[in-house]
Design goal:
Rossmann fold, about 475 residues, alpha+beta, single chain, BirA Bifunctional Protein, domain 2, about 20% strand, 8-stranded mixed sheet
Length: about 475
C-alpha cells in the first residue's frame, strides 16, 4: 500500500490535548460569566442553505465556503453565529422575548490566515433579541468586561454608535452614498494615524510599499470637519458626550446617536464599569453592512500582543432578523474569537500547556496486583479526583514517574507488596520532585530518596491527595 502523506489544509489546524484542555478552561470561565447574566445555550448546524448565508456584504460573501450537497442543494458552512441565530428567531416564534442566548461553535471563513487567525475557528457569542433598550447593549459590554477581567487580561473596550457616524456624514456634508467609504477610512485611524486619514479623505496617498491609495476627494471644509471630529481629546465618557453635543449643535438628526452613548454610559456607571476599561471611541465603525446602533470592540493592551487586533466585538443589529422574520426585531450582541484570544493568552503565559486532565497517576509496581491498583484508581475517581491508571509497558517506577511528569500529572500513588500488606500507599507530589535533582532509577533509590513523598493508610489517601492538589 502506498503511504499517504499526512498534511492539513492551509488555515486549518489540529488541536492536540494541551490546546483543547487550555481552551476548555477559557471557555468554562466565559460560560460562567455569561450564565451569571442569565444567558442560555443554543446550537445550530454547521451547514445552512446558501440563501440564508448570502446578503451581508460583498466581503462576507467572498469568505463563505459554498458547495453543492449530494442531493443537489446549494449550501455553505456558516461564517458566523449571528445569521443562524436570526434564522432561529424567525423559525421558532414561541421563544421567549427578550431571548438571551450564548453559543459556542466553530465557524468557517475563506480568509487570509494571520497570527491567531484561522479559516476554521471557534466563536463564543452572546446576544439579546427582542428589546431596543440601551440597557441590553450596556449589559453586553459589561459581560465582555467581566470575561476579560476573569481571564486576567489587560484590555480596553471601546464603543461608539453608527448613528453618531451617520450624524458625522450630515455634519460634514457628505453624500449618503459615500458614507460607508467615509466610515471605512475613519476605522483605520488607530493603525494609520490622523495625517494619513486626512490624505485618504482628500487626494489620496502612497503607502509604505509605494502603492497608491486613492482618496475620497472630499473638499477642504469637509475634511476639516471630519478631522475636528476625530481630533476631540480623549475624555471621560460623559465628557465625550458633552463635547459631541457641542460639535453637532444645530445639525438636524444628530440627537439619537448621542442619546444612545449617554444612556449606555449611565448603565455602565451603575454597573461600576471603570473609565479606564471602557471608553467611547468615535472612530469605531464595525460591521458597516448590518450594525444599526451601538458598536463595540475589545482589544488587548501591551506590546506582547500587538497585532492581535480585536478579540471581542459586536453591536446592535435591529434590521438583520427582519430578513427572515418579515418584521423588525431589535437585537444586540457580541462575539469572542476564542482561538485568537487563546493564542494571545498563550503568548502572555496566562494558559498552562498541560496534555492531561488527570490530577493523579496510579503507578503499577507489581503487575500481578493490577486489580488492586484498579481498586485504588476507582476509589479516587469515586471521590471526584481525576485519576489515570498507568497502562504502559515500563516496569521501573522511575520511567512511570517520568511519564507522569511529561503529561503534567501533579501527584503519583505508589504501592508495592509491602504497602499492600500494611494497608498503606505512598503519595508523591511530583511538583516537588521537579524542583529537586535526583535520578530515581529503581525501587531502592525511590525508597531512600522519599522526595515529596508521604506514606499514609489507604483510608486517608483521598484526604491527603485532596490536600495536595488544592494547594
Amino acid at each position: 500500500m502506498n503511504a499517504v502523506k499526512p498534511k492539513i489544509l492551509k488555515g486549518f489546524r489540529d488541536l492536540l490535548p494541551d490546546e483543547i484542555i487550555a481552551r476548555e478552561k477559557v471557555v468554562s470561565a466565559i460560560r460562567e460569566v455569561y450564565e451569571s447574566y442569565g444567558f442560555v445555550p443554543l446550537a445550530t448546524p454547521a451547514i445552512e442553505y446558501k440563501e440564508i448565508l448570502l446578503g451581508y456584504g460583498e466581503e462576507a460573501s467572498k469568505q463563505i465556503y459554498l458547495f453543492r450537497e449530494p442531493d443537489g442543494g446549494e449550501v455553505g458552512l456558516k461564517f458566523d453565529l449571528t445569521v443562524p441565530l436570526s434564522r432561529v428567531i424567525a423559525q421558532y416564534r414561541d421563544l421567549p422575548r427578550p431571548f438571551k442566548r450564548y453559543q459556542i461553535q466553530p465557524v468557517w471563513r475563506y480568509d487570509k490566515p494571520d497570527p491567531g487567525r484561522f479559516r476554521e475557528f471557534v466563536q463564543f457569542d452572546i446576544d439579546t433579541v427582542g428589546t431596543d433598550s440601551m440597557a441590553a447593549d450596556a449589559e453586553i459590554i459589561s459581560a465582555m468586561h467581566d470575561c476579560l477581567v476573569r481571564l486576567g487580561l489587560d484590555f480596553r473596550i471601546r464603543y461608539n454608535s453608527r448613528k453618531v457616524l451617520n450624524s458625522l456624514a450630515i455634519f460634514s456634508g457628505i453624500d449618503t452614498g459615500m458614507s460607508h467609504a467615509l466610515f471605512r477610512v475613519i476605522d483605520k485611524l488607530e493603525k494609520q494615524g490622523l495625517e494619513n486619514i486626512k490624505l485618504e479623505l482628500g487626494p489620496g496617498r502612497k503607502d509604505s510599499s509605494g502603492d497608491t491609495i486613492p482618496g475620497l476627494g472630499l473638499g477642504d471644509e469637509q475634511v476639516s470637519k471630519i478631522i475636528d471630529f476625530l481630533s476631540m481629546k480623549q475624555q471621560s465618557r460623559d465628557g465625550t458626550v458633552r463635547t459631541l453635543e457641542k460639535l453637532f449643535a444645530g445639525v438636524d438628526g444628530t440627537g439619537e446617536g448621542i442619546a444612545e452613548l449617554r444612556e449606555i454610559n449611565g448603565f455602565l456607571d451603575a454597573m461600576e464599569i471603570s473609565e479606564e476599561r471602557v471608553v467611547i471611541d468615535l472612530s469605531i465603525a464595525r460591521g458597516l453592512d448590518y450594525y444599526t446602533g451601538p458598536v463595540f470592540e475589545a482589544i488587548l493592551t501591551g506590546k506582547e500582543v500587538a497585532g492581535y487586533g480585536s478579540v471581542m466585538g459586536g453591536g446592535r443589529y435591529d434590521n438583520l432578523i427582519e430578513k427572515f422574520a418579515g418584521e423588525k426585531v431589535p437585537a444586540t450582541g457580541a462575539s469572542i474569537g476564542i482561538d485568537r484570544l487563546l493564542s494571545a493568552m498563550q503568548k502572555l503565559g496566562l494558559v498552562e500547556a498541560r496534555p492531561s486532565i488527570a490530577d493523579v497517576l496510579v503507578t503499577v509496581m507489581d503487575r500481578e496486583r493490577l486489580i488492586d491498583y484498579q481498586r485504588i484508581a476507582h476509589q479516587l475517581r469515586s471521590a471526584g479526583i481525576k485519576t489515570e491508571l498507568y497502562m504502559g509497558k515500563a516496569k521501573s517506577i522511575g520511567k512511570q514517574l517520568k511519564y507522569a511528569d511529561r503529561i503534567g500529572v501533579p501527584v503519583a500513588v505508589i504501592a508495592g507488596s509491602e504497602e499492600f500488606e500494611r494497608g498503606e500507599v505512598s503519595i508523591k507530589d511530583l511538583r516537588v520532585i521537579k524542583e529537586t535533582t535526583v535520578d530515581i532509577k529503581d525501587r531502592k533509590d525511590y525508597v531512600e530518596a522519599k522526595i515529596g513523598q508521604k506514606t499514609v493508610p489507604v483510608d486517608r489517601m483521598v484526604e491527603e491527595i485532596e490536600s495536595i492538589i488544592s494547594d
